[in-house]
């Protein structure tokens, strides 16, 4: 039985400690901007502006809160002791990179927060959520617990929503969430095909794998998520990412492909077995034809795709059924990509409009428009059952903008991360935020 459903996008609000620490080997932007001075206030406002623009266009737009950073409980687990200020000072002295890791605002990239399967696809007809363990990078491996709490406090009703724990946090089950998961369908409320893209097979050392940069997602992790969510084989496709793409800086599939409805917009270097993947999607997508929009290396070399983040765009269905591609500003700064975008719209295919967003603060850490959002397809009933205090409207946008203006710094260096005042500012701000959003006590310092 199908119902009308909507795609809601939940953007991660950038936290007060947004900084450039160069923590993500394999993510070209993160490494090239290491130690640059960041502007957390501007970063958060850029994100809010994107949310507001899309909400104004009629898209359902939600927000996921930033986490408590620097995360003192993690430092205590690692043996630092004394007052919170003592812990910070000792960590800064002993290992500034470790301090930067527990201070990262990386929860802003909610495409990595979790994998979500809509109720039309799952055996028990509930929406299933599994927070990603993000075990490939230490600074991200500490996100899943609080992410799970935030999701559970927004999607509380067990009649509609099912929450799983993150997978075991070892490399065999490396899971990076929705960034490696694409749902294709005829309409959001119809059962679709869930495409899981992985970088490596953990239990087969002979299988193809990247040589230079790490593969963050394993086949075994993707298969486990599909089992947990109660997806059937007939509606699930597993595809290996091209190892050469990972070695070229494509650390998540959403840096080289994006899908929406029956459209798959992708680069010719995205998949290891392109033909097989497309034909399996076609055969499993029962009530509609797949519309591939393939970009060739001749038109957009992979290096340009990576530096522009062309594919890290949001592909959104507008009221009239046509699709809007929400791209980062960098796409208009790179000739091959800008030319391609003009051609894409002119050729009259499924993507009829391009809109540019300035998310430069996030881009400098390797996060474009699509990294900043988690998609949750919801029926009318599910939308009615969720906590609506996190949905953006004019009033919430104004309130959050004022909140950012009042609490965030406009300059942050690596040395500032050891400042005990920053920790106080962050906790104070987040305490107010859970009040604004009506989320209850989700942070460790509130418990
Ligand atoms: N989906 C986009 C994720 C970007 C994220 N960058 C970072 O964590 C960089 C943080 C730093 O280097 O300070 C990552 O690589 O997982």
Write the layout of secondary structure elements.
Blueprint: E1 5-12, H1 28-32, H2 40-56, E2 60-64, H3 72-77, H4 84-94, H5 96-103, E3 114-117, E4 127-131, H6 138-141, H7 144-154, E5 161-163, E6 181-184, E7 193-198, H8 219-228, E8 236-240, H9 243-247, E9 257-260, E10 263-267, H10 274-284, E11 291-295, H11 302-308, E12 314-317, E13 323-328, H12 335-346, E14 351-357, H13 360-363, E15 373-379, H14 380-385, H15 394-407, H16 420-437
Parallel strand pairs: 1-2, 4-5, 7-8, 10-11, 13-14
Antiparallel strand pairs: 1-15, 3-4, 6-7, 9-10, 12-13
Helix pairs in contact: 2-15, 4-5, 15-16
The structure holds N~2~-(3-carboxypropanoyl)-L-ornithine.
How would you describe this protein?
- The chain is α/β, with parallel strands linked by helices and 447 residues long.
- The protein has a domain of 185 residues: Succinylarginine dihydrolase (L-arginine/glycine Amidinotransferase, Chain A, 5-stranded Propeller), CATH 3.75.10.
- Helices cover 33% and strands 17% of the residues.
- It contains 16 helices and 15 strands.
- Strands 2-1-15 form a 3-stranded mixed β-sheet, sandwiched between helices.
- β13, α12 and β14 form a beta-alpha-beta unit.
- α2 packs antiparallel against α15, α4 packs across α5 and α15 packs antiparallel against α16.
- The longest helix has 18 residues.
- The N and C termini lie far apart (42 Å).
- The relative contact order is 0.18.
- The model has no long low-confidence stretch (mean pLDDT 97).
- The structure holds N~2~-(3-carboxypropanoyl)-L-ornithine.
- N~2~-(3-carboxypropanoyl)-L-ornithine binds next to loops.
- Keywords: Arginine metabolism, Hydrolase.
- Its EC number is 3.5.3.23.
- Homodimer.
- GO terms for molecular function: N-succinylarginine dihydrolase activity.
